[in-house]
Amino acid sequence: MNTMALIVKFVTCLVAYAVGLDLFFNATWVDIVWFSVLMTIVSYLGDRILLSRIGNKNALIADFILSYMVVWIFGSVLLDNYLQIAWGSIISAVIITAGEFFVHRLMHGSMPEGSQKKNVVPDRLAYGMEMSEEHEPLKKK
């Protein structure tokens, strides 16, 4: 377990949700802390599973989508304003994704050497081509 990555992830979430939710809403600090705890746990588990399999760039995209959806879904239930929740979601997701770049570097450095490149999606697809001559069967007369 990488404690430093969890701390950086939690502080990033606190800052992002304080800016994204408190700037547009009258969100309480309890709401901001609960959003941060939820996002920290879900994102950390997702990073532990996905980072070694799909790579850093795709994991950042997944983190952006996850943080956007968490604020959009739970924010629309708790805070009751759909237009403002969209802007709060985008701002929070951008800040969290910027922080996740550094968290991924911390997590990538703490992974065992064998699992860092294991199951990474290739950049290019490789296709093989097989060639042979067509042989017609002997014709019987």
Explain the overall architecture.
With 141 residues, the chain is mainly alpha-helical. The radius of gyration is 23 Å and the shape is elongated.
Q: Compute the average pLDDT.
A: 79
- Helical segment tally? 4
Query: Which series of helices and strands comes N to C?
Result: HHHH
Main sheet characteristics: none
Given the helix and strand composition, which structural class is it?
A: mainly alpha
Distance between the termini: 78 Å
Low-confidence stretches: none
Number of extended strands: 0
- Write down the overall geometry: elongated
Taking all Cα atoms into account, the compactness measure Rg is: 23 Å
Helical proportion, percent range: over 70%
Which strand-content bin applies to the residues? under 5%
Main features:
70% helix, 141 residues, mainly alpha
SSE blueprint and pairings:
Elements: H1 3-22, H2 29-54, H3 56-79, H4 82-110
Structure, briefly:
The protein is mainly alpha-helical and 141 residues long. The chain has four helices and no strands.
